Amino acid sequence: MENLIFKRVLPEEMDLWFSMRIDSLNESPSAFLASPQKELEQGVDFFRSRIIKGGDDNVIFGCLFEGKFIGSVGIVREGHEKASHKSFIWGMYVSPEFRKLKVAGKLLDMAINFAIESMKVSQINLSVESTREPAKRLYTSRGFEKWGTEKNAMQVGEQFYDEDYMVLVLN
User: Fold this and answer.
1) What torsion, rounded to 10 degrees, do the Cα atoms 63, 65, 67, 73 define?
2) 2 — pLDDT class (breaks 50, 70, 90)
3) How far apart are CA 74 and CA 81, in angstroms?
4) Cβ-contact 56, 27 below 8 angstroms
């Protein structure tokens, strides 16, 4: 882990991050609602704009190894005033060759701590494809609880996938 650098992704690093994002969507299509084609159409400037305009309400944390992002997670505050006490974890990904190094746990901890200390939210939501047991174990280990499942939430090709919804209440 000593060669891994964990940090908030800066606007000027978005091109490097975006390359990993596209790799993640290609490598794990059922883990994300987004598709590589749509993300490429939107382009990196879509994400760069979101983190610039979002300030501390829309943040991406990443892990670098040898100058390349190998993992990331985003956290965004809910946009509606009446839901602004909540944030949402999105886009959790770690490159397969780094998955045994606890990178995802460190990234998740960074997002949770940021939500508590900077966003000052009282709950964090996330969703995860129902068969992703390692991810669900990670989220549960940090106190997230499953509150529901959406059947056939996503379709990749001819295959349907359920999505589990989880919450971490920070009271």
Assistant:
1) -20
2) confident
3) 20
4) no
Please state, as a whole number, how many other Cβ atoms lie within 10 Å of the Cβ of residue 100.
8
Structure tokens at 7: 């940090």
Angle among Cα 126, 3, 17 to the nearest 5 degrees reads 45
What type of residue sits at position 135?
Answer: A
Q: How many angstroms from the chain centroid is the CA of residue 104?
A: 10
CB 122 within 8 A of CB 170: yes
The one-character DSSP state at 171 is -
List the alpha helices (DSSP H) in the chain.
14-27, 36-42, 44-54, 103-114, 133-141
pTM of the model: 0.94
**Domains along the sequence of the chain with CATH:** 4-120 (3.40.630.30)
Ramachandran angles phi, psi of 93, nearest 5°: -155, 140
| C-alpha torsion angle, residues 15, 62, 21, 16 (rounded to 10) | 20
Report how far Cα 119 is from the mean position of its chain's Cα atoms: 16
pLDDT in tens, 10-52: 999 999 999 999 999 999 888 898 989 999 999 999 999 999 9
pLDDT above 90 for 1:
no
Per-residue pLDDT tens digits for 63-97: 999 999 999 999 999 999 999 999 999 999 999 99
Per the structure block, which two tokens stand in for 130? 């129902």
